[in-house]
C-alpha cells in the first residue's frame, strides 16, 4: 500500500487510543513505532484498514497482505505528533490512601534488634464493694412490749437493747393482749407475746384494736395456721412471728414497718433582720412543746456561722449539723450528735467554729428527713440569710414563723418574705408573724395597726422589751418559763406553741438536773465552749468591798426573784465597847456591895448585943 494508506491506519489507531478504556486495555495497547521498524501482522492476518467513508459500519474487508515500512519523516505535522503523545499519556490516578510501609526501618536493623518485650497484662480490677443495706432506725415512737411466756421476756429485753430502737420509748410489761389493752393510750407500736389460741385470742385482739385503732401490732405466737393468719390480717395485725425467733430478726421486721414514716411536724423560725430575738423565740417554743405539752421535740440550730443554741441552753455537744451532713452513715451519726437536754427535748447543735452557709439543698433536705424521725416535732432555728437551701426549707416546712421588730427595716424584709412565701406555700399555709422587742424606751416605732396593714397580716403575738428577764434567763441557761413562770412572756410563748402544734400546755416541767449531778460520764467539750465555761467559772481571788447600798431597780415585768438580796446591815463597833463597859460597871458594883457587907458585920453584932 502507499503512504496515504499508512497514514489512514495511523489515524485509526490514534482514534482507538484516545477512547476511554479500562486499566487492562491500557496495557494491551500496541507499541509505538519508530523509524526503521518493520511491522508484520501476526498469523499472516491482513492488517486492519479503516472502512471507507461510505462504509460507516465497516462491512468491507481488506484482502491485501503487505509489509509496512515506516518512514523517518512523519506523515503528520510536528504539532499533531505532540498532541498524540499528550493524549497517549493517560493521567495516573493516585490511590485513595497511602499504604503503610512494610518496614519502618532497614531490614538489617530489624534483624539485629532484640525482639520486642511482651506488654504486661493489665491488672484485674478489684471487685466493686458490696453496698451494705442498713436498716433505718425506728423513729421516735412509743412501743409497748407485753409477754405471757417467760421465754419471751428475754427476747423482748434483748430487742429493747438493740441500737435500732434507741430513739423509741420502750415499755416492757407482763400481760400479753389484755395488759396491752389496759395501757394503750399514746402507744404507736405493740409487740405482744400471747399464749391464747383461737376465739379467746381473737376476742382479746378486738379489745386491743378498739382501745388503739391506729397503732401497729406485731404478735409472737406458737400457732402456725393459715386460717389464723387470715383472721389476724383482717384485724390489722402487721406481722405474726412464730418462734424460734431472734431479736435481730424482730428488729429488722419492726424497722421495715416504719422505714418510710416521718411523723414529725417541722416548724421553721427565721428573723426578718438580725437581732430581733428569733433564736430566743425558737428555743423557748421548742422547750414549751417538749415540757409543757410533753411531746418529744428536736431543736436544730442551722445557723452554721454564729449559732449558739446549745451554749444558750447549757448543752455540751461533741458533733454538729455539718458532721451529720458529711457522714457516710447519717442515721448513726445523728443519733450520737443529739444532746438530750430534758426527757422530751434534744438539741442538734451548730458547729463550734464559724462555717460557711453554702450547703446543697438536697443535703439539707436529707438532713431534715432524718431529723423528722427523732421526735414528734422539729423546730429549726434558721439564719438570717437568703441562701437557696434556706428558701427550700421555708417552702417545705409545715409551719413558718417570721420574727420582726417594729422598725422600717423589719417591715420591708418581712413584707418581701411574706410575698414570696405566699406564692410558694399556697397549699401548705401562710407564715405566722411575730413582733418582738416592742416598747423600747426612747425609740420611735411603727404602730401595730400600720405594720399589720403594710404586710397584710395580723401579728399573732407581740413580745415586749424586757431585757432583765430575757438576759438573766439566757445567762443562767434557762428558759423564760423556768426563770419566771407567771410572767407575760412565758404565757405568750406557751400560747404561740399551742397555736403552732394544736395541743394545749397541760403539764408542769420537771426540774433540770445540773451536769455535775448526773452519774453518766460527760462528753468532751468543744474547745471554744470549754474556754468560755472556764472563763465563766473562775472564782474571784478576794471578795471586794461592798458598794454603798442603793435602792434596787425592779423590772417592768415585775420579776423580783431575779434581783439579788440587799447586803446585810453592819453593826457598828461602838456597841461592843458599850457592852463591855456596862459589864465592867456591874462587876465593880458587885465588888463594892460585897466589901460593904463585910465592913458592916461588926457593927451589926454590936447593935444586936445592945438590943438584948
Task: Describe the secondary-structure layout.
Blueprint lengths: L2 H16 L4 H5 L10 E2 L28 E2 L8 H11 L18 H6 L29 E6 L2 H11 L8 E6 L1 H7 L6 E5 L5 H13 L4 E5 L5 H9 L4 E3 L5 H11 L7 E7 L6 H15 L4 E5 L7 H4 L8 H6 L3 H8 L1 E2 L4 E4 L12 H11 L5 E5 L6 H9 L2 E6 L3 H17 L7 E7 L9 H8 L5 E4 L2 H9 L4 H4 L4 H14 L25 H10 L37 H26 L1 H11 L1
Parallel strand pairs: 3-4, 3-5, 5-6, 6-7, 8-12, 8-13, 9-11, 9-12, 13-14, 14-15
Antiparallel strand pairs: 1-2, 10-11
Helix pairs in contact: 5-9, 6-7, 10-20, 14-15
Question: How would you describe this protein?
Answer:
This protein has helices at 3-18, 23-27, 78-88, 107-112, 150-160, 176-182, 199-211, 226-234, 247-257, 278-292, 309-312, 321-326, 330-337, 361-371, 388-396, 408-424, 448-455, 467-475, 480-483, 488-501, 527-536, 574-599, 601-611; strands at 38-39, 68-69, 142-147, 169-174, 189-193, 216-220, 239-241, 265-271, 297-301, 339-340, 345-348, 377-381, 399-404, 432-438, 461-464. An eight-stranded mixed β-sheet has the order 10-11-9-12-8-13-14-15, sandwiched between helices. α17 links the parallel β14 (432-438) and β15 (461-464). With 612 residues, the protein is an alpha/beta fold. Mean pLDDT is 76; it is low at 20-29, 37-43, 56-76, 79-88, 97-111, 515-526, 536-544 and 547-565. The chain is built from 23 helices and 15 strands. Helices cover 39% and strands 11% of the residues.
Amino acid at each position: 500500500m502507499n503512504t496515504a494508506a499508512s497514514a489512514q491506519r495511523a489515524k485509526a489507531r490514534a482514534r482507538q487510543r484516545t477512547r476511554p478504556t479500562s486499566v487492562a486495555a491500557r496495557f494491551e495497547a500496541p507499541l509505538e513505532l519508530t523509524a526503521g521498524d518493520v511491522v508484520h501482522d501476526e498469523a499472516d492476518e491482513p492488517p486492519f484498514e479503516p472502512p471507507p467513508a461510505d462504509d460507516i459500519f465497516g462491512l468491507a474487508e481488506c484482502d491485501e497482505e503487505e509489509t509496512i515500512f515506516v518512514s523517518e519523516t512523519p506523515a503528520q505535522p510536528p504539532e499533531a505528533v505532540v498532541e498524540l503523545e499528550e493524549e497517549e499519556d493517560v493521567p495516573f490516578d493516585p490511590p485513595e490512601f497511602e499504604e503503610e510501609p512494610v518496614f519502618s526501618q532497614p531490614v538489617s536493623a530489624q534483624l539485629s534488634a532484640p525482639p520486642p518485650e511482651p506488654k504486661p497484662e493489665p491488672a484485674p480490677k478489684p471487685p466493686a464493694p458490696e453496698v451494705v443495706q442498713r436498716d433505718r432506725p425506728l423513729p421516735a415512737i412509743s412501743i409497748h412490749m407485753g409477754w405471757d411466756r417467760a421465754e419471751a421476756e428475754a427476747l423482748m429485753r434483748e430487742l429493747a437493747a438493740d441500737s435500732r430502737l434507741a430513739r423509741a420509748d420502750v415499755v416492757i410489761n407482763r400481760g400479753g393482749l389484755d395488759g396491752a389493752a389496759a395501757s394503750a393510750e399514746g402507744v404507736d407500736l405493740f409487740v405482744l407475746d400471747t399464749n391464747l389460741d383461737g376465739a379467746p385470742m381473737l376476742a382479746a385482739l378486738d379489745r386491743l384494736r378498739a382501745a388503739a385503732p391506729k397503732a401497729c401490732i406485731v404478735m409472737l405466737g406458737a400457732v402456725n395456721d393459715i386460717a389464723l393468719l387470715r383472721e389476724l390480717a383482717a384485724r390489722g395485725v402487721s406481722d405474726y412471728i412464730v418462734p424460734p425467733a431472734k431479736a435481730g430478726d424482730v428488729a429488722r421486721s419492726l424497722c421495715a414497718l416504719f422505714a418510710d414514716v416521718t411523723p414529725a411536724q417541722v416548724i421553721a423560725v427565721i428573723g426578718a433582720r438580725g437581732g430581733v430575738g428569733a433564736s430566743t423565740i425558737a428555743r423557748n417554743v421548742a422547750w414549751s412543746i417538749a415540757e409543757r405539752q410533753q411531746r418529744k421535740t428536736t431543736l436544730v440550730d442551722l445557723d452554721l456561722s454564729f449559732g449558739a443554741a446549745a451554749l444558750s441552753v447549757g448543752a455540751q455537744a461533741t458533733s454538729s449539723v455539718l458532721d451529720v451532713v458529711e457522714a457516710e452513715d447519717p442515721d448513726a451519726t445523728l443519733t450520737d450528735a443529739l444532746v438530750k437536754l430534758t426527757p422530751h427535748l434534744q438539741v442538734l447543735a451548730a458547729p463550734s467554729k464559724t462555717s460557711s452557709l453554702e450547703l446543697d439543698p438536697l443535703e439539707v433536705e436529707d438532713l431534715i428527713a432524718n431529723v423528722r424521725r427523732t421526735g414528734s416535732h422539729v423546730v429549726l432555728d434558721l439564719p438570717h440569710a437568703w441562701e437557696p437551701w434556706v428558701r427550700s426549707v421555708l417552702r417545705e416546712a409545715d409551719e413558718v414563723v417570721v420574727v420582726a421588730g417594729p422598725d422600717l427595716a423589719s417591715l420591708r424584709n418581712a413584707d418581701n418574705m411574706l410575698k414570696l412565701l405566699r406564692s410558694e406555700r399556697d397549699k401548705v399555709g401562710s407564715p405566722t408573724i411575730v413582733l418582738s422587742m416592742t416598747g423600747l424606751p426612747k425609740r420611735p416605732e411603727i404602730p401595730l395597726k400600720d405594720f399589720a396593714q403594710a404586710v397584710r397580716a395580723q401579728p399573732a403575738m407581740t413580745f415586749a422589751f424586757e431585757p432583765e428577764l430575757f438576759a438573766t434567763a439566757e445567762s443562767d441557761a434557762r428558759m423564760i418559763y423556768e426563770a419566771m413562770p407567771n410572767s407575760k412572756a412565758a404565757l405568750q410563748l406557751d400560747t404561740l406553741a399551742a397555736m403552732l402544734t394544736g395541743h394545749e400546755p397541760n403539764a408542769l416541767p420537771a426540774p433540770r438536773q445540773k451536769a455535775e449531778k448526773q452519774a453518766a460520764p460527760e462528753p468532751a467539750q468543744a474547745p471554744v465552749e470549754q474556754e468560755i465555761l472556764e472563763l465563766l467559772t473562775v472564782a474571784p481571788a478576794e471578795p471586794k468591798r461592798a458598794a454603798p447600798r442603793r435602792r434596787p431597780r425592779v423590772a417592768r415585768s415585775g420579776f423580783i426573784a431575779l434581783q439579788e438580796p440587799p447586803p446585810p446591815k453592819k453593826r457598828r463597833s461602838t456597841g461592843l465597847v458599850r457592852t463591855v463597859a456596862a459589864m465592867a460597871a456591874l462587876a465593880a458594883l458587885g465588888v463594892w456591895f460585897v466589901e460593904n457587907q463585910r465592913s458592916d458585920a461588926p457593927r451589926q453584932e454590936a447593935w444586936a448585943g445592945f438590943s438584948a
